[in-house]
Amino acid sequence: MDYILMHKDVSVAELDINERYGQIENVGSVLDIAHLPIGTVDPSGAVDADALASWWSRRSIPAGRTGLREFLDRLNLADVRFLLLKSMGLSLSDHYWVRPAGESISWSDVNYFDNGFSADVGDLLFGREVRVGSIDLSSPDNTAEGVLRKRWTVVDGKRCLIKSGGGIGGQEPVNEVAASMIAESMGLDHVRYALVQDGDIKCSVCDDFVTTSTEFVPASHIIRSVGLSCKEALYRSLVDECGRHGLDAVPFLDRMIVFDYIIGNGDRHLNNFGIIRDADTLAWISMAPLYDNGASMGYDILTEDLDGGFGLSCMPFADTFPEQMGLVTTLDWFEVGCVQRSLTEVRNLLATHMSDERAEAIIDQIEFRTDMVRDLVRG
Question: What residues in the chain have per-residue pLDDT under 50?
């Protein structure tokens, strides 16, 4: 076997990995089944080799990433998964990596939480010039998911994610900050965003929400672990599996569903929320803070069409918000006045980055949805 799948300093499984294309070709001995990634163990308790290979492939930059084709051409790469080995599969979202067989490298030697990393991959993904002969491919950007341009950087010793955005006038980064303001007003556990410029690209920036001792597990991995294929059972299965690990997910999901309804977030797919677990004990600690809220507030709708509403379809538990709102167990925690008081600040932010007409149309829709929730509270 060429490599050992590692979880921090725990040896997990022996792997054969094709070094040209970066994919797992064979899984050898499993050395510690408890530390295999969630969703890669079958119902009998054995490693699912296909699921593990798929988990590894999904770890790479997705094929739909903006600017990826130009990036691969510049490096003369056949497959983006090749980059996984250049960074040992290291991430700033969890603590998995691969170590060449027979070597004695430790987690402390290589992890990106404590050690530096190259900016070259991020520069190339953002369209910057990097001298080809000197490119360093050791970067957590090789394992950053999502289709938008993004890169990791270090600010005042903190690992921070910089992300570009699409939409009308590049609205998504602005939405991230506006959504943070609304989440704060609602008292929700959320990731805080700010606006930055990366060259001539408007971006959002946020701190990493995991540490050297904790890691993020997306809801998609949890759903795979229970072998679910029926969308109608997603909510109940997720709640039950969290409960099996001592975590009550219902209060968080209540708040997430209402928040997404208010901002019209139609992109809360199963990789956009999840849980935080202890990377050493594997205990499930909490639901992860709300993040990645940019595909909301009519970001892709022309201004003249915003009065027709935005965010009419949703994820992950239903196709429409009215249906998904039906899953909310209680609204005792909701205070409509808190949301309303945040909207002056939100309006000012939006008006700084778009026309007053567009900003007002977005605020009108948020106020309408907030009033709808208030009516549900009143019964």
Answer: none
